[in-house]
Every structure is written in structure tokens, then in C-alpha cells.
Design goal:
Largest sheet: 7 strands, antiparallel
Number of strands: 7
Strand order of the largest sheet: 4-3-2-1-5-7-6
CATH topology: L-fuculose-1-phosphate Aldolase
CATH architecture: 3-Layer(aba) Sandwich
Order of helices and strands: HEEEEHEHHHEEHH
Bound molecules: zinc ion
Number of helices: 7
CATH superfamily: Class II aldolase/adducin N-terminal domain
CATH class: Alpha Beta
Radius of gyration: 19 Å
Strand content: 5-15%
Distance between the termini: 43 Å
Mean pLDDT: 91
Helix content: 40-55%
Length: 252
């Protein structure tokens, strides 16, 4: 693929929606947080019956709202934008359509989370900090069949992610992250801000788990610890207090 046109200045007469600005900023924030390298990964934000995603192979630092590509949730076709959308567009489309409450999706190749995906290991829920954000272990998908790879690869990755949650009986609201085996993590949130926190936290808990597994390769979780993790998760997310968070400060 040739070098994408970077369009360093806003095209004359082009108006931009707030969601495009938000989607461009989310991608830059993911890069600033050190969660992606080069042009790897992509982030998107839902906008009604469409979503706005990073152009394929585009440098994060130069990314501005007018570079973003608007894609129909119905057809998967580009509705606005002059550049080719991310190669992962169909994965995002599947997730948005399956889980209508998802407002933003981030895919990175962040080092530790990707190491777990590469090793073929889920990220075990094994400490309280992780329990604050995830009600359960971060699941790992299986492999696609050769047919699924050949027929509609990205759509099938999206379907595989959704099936993984169904099969394992995990609520994607309570565990908003997955490891696509031999590839890397996908995270989501109701808002762009929540998805970004999720992407950062996932990488940190993956790092902690990696260190813990080096010290104790036979790491397991006791029933008592599981009970404590459940308590932590419910407390952090206000499920102990009728929706009112009693952790941190209101509005922060
Ligand atoms: Zn990827």
C-alpha cells in the first residue's frame, strides 16, 4: 500500500462533527499512552447508526478529525472520508452491532497484553486492583478455522470475540476486554474516556500478572480470594450501593 496522504491542514469548507474530533483524539491518546507503536492498532467511536475509525496505516501523531473515516453500522461501507478505513473496521462493526451500549472500541498491540495473547493465556483475575475493573478473568478467544480466515477474516474475528463471551457466560459490560489469541487485546467502553482507561488498565494488570506468573508459575485463585474480588468489583462499580459509586470521588 502506498503512503497515505496526510492532509496536514483542514480541507477548506469541511465541517467536522464533535465525534470525529473525539475519535481522532482517542487515537492520539492511545498513542501518547504508549499502547501502540508505529501505525499498529486502531480506535473508533460510535456516532448513531455509524462509527468513526482511524484510516489504515495512518501515523497517529498526525491524525486529525478530517482524516477520520465514517463507516455505516448497517452496511460496513464508508459514508464519509477520503482515506481507506482501518483494516480492523469489520471487527469493530461486529462488536458495535452485537453490543449496542458500546460507545468506543480500542485495539492495541500493547506489550504485556499481547504477550498473554501470544502465549495463549487468559489474564487471570488474581488481585484486587484488577478486580476493581474486571469482574472476571480476561478471556482468550480460540482460533479461527482455515475457512474462516479465508472467507471474511475480520468479520469472523468479530464474531469469534462475541462467541467467546457467550460460550464462557461472561458479561462484556463487567469484563470489557478480550485477548484475540495470537494477536492482541480489544477493549471497549460506554464512552471514549472509559475505553481509554480500560486500555491503560488492561496493560498494567497484564504486566502485574506477568511478573506474578514468573514468581509463581502455578498461580491459582482460592475461593476466599474470588469472594474478595467479587466484593471489590461490586464496590468499585456501585453494585453494592444501588448504582452509587462509593470509591473515588463523585464525578471523577
Ligand atoms: Zn491488530
Amino acid at each position: 500500500m502506498g503512503k497515505p496522504q496526510t492532509m496536514t491542514t483542514r480541507p477548506v469548507g469541511r465541517t467536522q462533527s464533535n465525534v470525529k474530533e473525539q475519535a481522532a483524539k482517542l487515537n492520539r491518546d492511545v498513542f501518547k499512552a504508549g499502547l501502540v507503536y508505529e501505525t499498529w492498532g486502531t480506535a473508533s467511536v460510535r456516532d448513531g447508526d455509524r462509527f468513526i475509525i482511524k484510516p489504515s496505516g495512518f501515523p497517529y501523531k498526525k491524525l486529525r478529525s478530517w482524516h477520520m473515516v465514517t463507516v455505516s453500522l448497517n452496511t460496513g461501507k464508508t459514508r464519509e472520508g477520503e482515506l481507506n478505513p482501518s483494516i480492523d473496521t469489520k471487527i469493530h462493526k461486529e462488536i458495535y452491532n452485537a453490543w449496542p451500549w458500546v460507545g468506543a472500541i480500542i485495539h492495541t498491540h500493547s506489550t504485556y497484553a499481547t504477550a498473554f495473547a501470544t502465549a495463549g493465556l487468559p489474564i487471570l483475575l488474581a488481585n484486587t486492583t484488577m478486580a476493581d475493573y474486571y469482574a472476571n478473568t480476561i478471556p482468550l478467544t480460540g482460533d479461527l478455522s482455515t475457512c474462516e480466515v479465508d472467507s471474511d477474516f475480520e468479520t469472523n474475528i468479530g464474531k469469534l470475540i462475541i462467541q467467546t463471551f457467550k460460550k464462557q457466560g461472561i458479561d462484556p459490560r463487567l469484563v470489557p476486554a478480550v485477548l484475540h489469541k495470537s494477536h492482541g487485546p480489544f477493549v471497549w467502553g460506554e464512552t471514549a474516556a472509559k475505553a481509554l482507561v480500560n486500555a491503560k488498565v488492561l496493560e498494567k494488570v497484564a504486566e502485574i500478572n506477568c511478573l506474578a506468573l514468573r514468581m509463581n508459575p502455578d498461580l491459582t485463585v482460592s475461593k476466599a480470594a474470588k469472594y474478595m474480588f467479587d466484593y471489590h468489583n461490586r464496590r468499585h462499580n456501585g453494585r453494592l450501593t444501588g448504582g452509587k459509586r462509593n470509591y473515588g470521588q463523585e464525578g471523577h
